[in-house]
Amino acid sequence: MTDSILADTARRLFTDRVTPEVLRRAEEGHGEGHWPADLWTAIEEMGLGLALVPEEAGGFGVDMVEALELVRIAGSFAAPVPLADSMLAGWLLAGAGLEVPAGPLTVAPPHTGEPAPVLIRRNGGWHLSGSVRRVPWGRSAAAVALLAEYDGQICVVRLDAGDWRVAEPGRNIAGEERDDLRFDTALAGDRVAPAPKGLGAGTLHAMGATLRSLAMAGAIERVLDLTVQYVGERVQFGRPLGKFQAVQQNLAVLAGQAAAAGAAADGAAEAFADLASGVPCPLPVAAAKLRCGEAAGIAASIAHQMHGAIGFTHEHALHHLTRRLWSWRDEYGNEASWAMRLGRQVAAAGADGLWPLVTAA
Amino acid sequence: MPRIAFPPPPSSDATEALRAEVRDFLRTELADRPPRRRADSWNGFDRAFSRKMGERGWIAMTWPKRYGGHERSALERYVVLEEMLAAGAPVAAHWIADRQSGPLLLKNGTEEQRLSILPRIASGDCTFCIGMSEPDSGSDLAAVRTRAVPVAEDEGGGWRVNGTKLWTTYAHHAQYMILFCRTDGGAEDRQGGTSQLLVDLSTPGITIRPILDLSGAHHFNEVVFEDVLLPEDALIGRRGDGWNQVMSELAFERSGPERFLSSMALLTELVRALGPSPSGHAAIALGRLVGHLIVLRRLSRSVADMLDKGENPALQASLVKDLGALFEQEIPEIARQLVEAEPDLDSTREFSAVLAHTVMNAPAFSLRGGTREILRGIIARGLGLR
Fold first, then answer.
1. Is the CB of residue A7 less than 8 Å from the CB of residue A70?
2. Closest CA to A115 of A130, A136, A93, A134
């Protein structure tokens, strides 16, 4: 499967399957959302969730940058499924030599300052107890990949449905499941493996930030599309809104934010291979999460302003994208947390190290 | 597919040796240049420095060898350029000619114009200025009034020029101007009937008067043409094609690293002033700026690559310039809140002097080379709204 075929396949699939009805049902009520089983089945039939898994472990063996493009595409459709999370879980499990199961997968995001769950040896197998917070699609996933500690060493663990209970169901403001999970369970030997060299909570956090950056870039691009279309159609004072200079200038700002977010996410996607090979958080990842997060807020604000009251209704499609943008910018570290990390690196490099640091990024 | 695409720029690994060479050169050459002078960025004028760059082959890098060029890649040129600007090297003596006038002559000039002028630009000996704006023609460039009228053969032939150009940077140091003027028609013809002429500034009838900027510095000039006689072969490209020639020239002017590095000296001094352990608040503000810088550089390198491939990224260039100017203007506003210092050009503290310089130059960042409003109009047209 070549790269552009992969992207085209995904676009076609989402165009057909992510219907207004699917989105509405997935985001319904508080805690009542409906798992879009048909959409997920179609994604799984195409094997999209395995895009980051090496060929020998059952994936397509496509280039990582091309694989990650799927996350941007899913973001642009507001696809209400854990495609990005499944891809990351697949990479994590396969990288540790664990089997990648079928079904929607997810990763327990590491949270700064919170200790990893602890593994102990018991009866020739393993025992894991502890909890993880805000796991994307925790209640719907077939398996969760997470990092745990054994005797000071970081391990990759695969939990299957039934190994955990949902301690506190939650949702982000786009209605995507974000659940706290608790577990106290025995695990067979084939569910635990030492993490690949260099992989730790920091790397996983940075990978998650890369995925959310790509998803935001895709959603912002679509927000720009919807807004250009709307101001071209909506007539007030006898002409389309897009003919007013004030509106044109706002759209130009929105286009600038879309371009910056897109380029920032591209940079992070290129750095993903470095992350995967154990380089501790490359600068483009920090730049991407803080830049896409900032662009998300500006883009959502302009898009709603340009859409007027209709864009503020539940009926209109804009909120599927803007509510995701407002959610994703706070997942895997907000702008300030990434800016702080980047700022400290810059300060440590010093004034004369600033430019070399930028050109090496 | 994005509406305005920025293809991934090529990896810069291939140019790292060149980058190291440029950094070595700058370390020596600029050892005594204090931050307050580096803050001049591309307004710093130093003929001797430009000649040294010429000797190294760092001017006219991509031009054919027969015109004094070095036939190197656009990516290599970009590396030299961004290293110069990031370090605050005084490039003004060759800058405009290298970036804008030389490429214009290469594309549209006569063979004689190329052979006589381009090698002198390449050696760092020749300075150009750009005659576009006029008292009544700023953003509305098509309102140009300066007029070149053909002179009858029996009266000596060539062109007679009358009019006034404004905001002409470094006209007082330049040997040549690329003059944008009307050769046919009237104001009602707008873009039609305009042409570009090569003007030797030592020609009689040209008066150059300084215009001081708000800080009192002299970069700008007013250039008055009174019955100035130019030879027939002063015409660049085709008569009446001036507008199209100028527009393709501006794509080069709007895309480079100069569009987001103008405040680099202040950002560098900010890092120095904050020291190795800034407060959390300062680290966040600093990290955000550097994050923006990394992304802008990627966008700009993408545009450079498109130019290199012969594409026309005028829209992308406008977008980078708009984002870049916002960034350059934000730096002084943020830096002054993080460091306890008052702006003072003559302060013994470098931070205060660089801050003063940057604050007073910042308004120009979103005016020169196309105002923010004009750029956003171009972007809106690119989105199909106009």
1. yes
2. A130
Closest CB to A260: pick one of B8, B295, B377: B295
Distance from CA of A355 to the nearest CA of B (A): 7
Q: How far is B75 from chain A (nearest CA, A)?
A: 13
Contact flag A256-B379 (C-beta cutoff 8 Å): yes
Mean pLDDT of A327-344: 98
Q: Is the pLDDT assigned to residue A283 strictly greater than 60?
A: yes
Residues 318-357 of A with CB under 8 A from B: 335-336, 338-351, 354-355, 357
CATH domain A3-194 topology: Butyryl-CoA Dehydrogenase, subunit A; domain 2 (2.40.110)
Q: What is the CATH number of domain B254-382?
A: 1.20.140.10
Smallest CA–CA distance from A294 into chain B, residue: B288
CA distance A109 to A126: 22
**For position A32, what pLDDT does the model report?**
63
**pTM listed for this prediction:** 0.96
Within this chain, domains B13-126 and B130-240 share the same CATH topology:
no
Domain ranges of chain B: 13-126, 130-240, 254-382
Does the pLDDT value for residue A2 go beyond 70? no
Specify the CATH class of B130-240 in words.
mainly beta
Q: How far is A141 from chain B (nearest CA, A)?
A: 30
pLDDT value of residue A1: 38
Contact A343 B290 (CB under 8 A): yes
Q: Nearest C-alpha of chain A: how many angstroms from B89?
A: 14
- Comparing CB atoms, the residue among B286, B293, B376 nearest residue A249 is B376
CA proximity to A295, closest of A229, A219, A346, A207? A219
Least confident of A3-12, A191-200, B244-253, B271-280: B244-253
Could you tell me the pLDDT band of residue B7, with boundaries at 50, 70 and 90?
very high
Q: How far is the first Cα of chain A from the last one, in angstroms, to the nearest whole number?
A: 31
Number of H helices, E strands in chain A: 11, 10
> What pLDDT is attached to residue A61?
80
The superfamily CATH assigns to domain A201-360 is: Butyryl-CoA Dehydrogenase, subunit A, domain 3 (1.20.140.10)
A170 close to A177: Cβ distance less than 8 angstroms: yes
First-to-last C-alpha distance (Å) of chain B: 21
- The fold adopted by the segment(s) B13-126 is Butyryl-Coa Dehydrogenase, subunit A; domain 1 (1.10.540)
Residue spans in chain A of domains classed CATH 1.20.140.10? 201-360
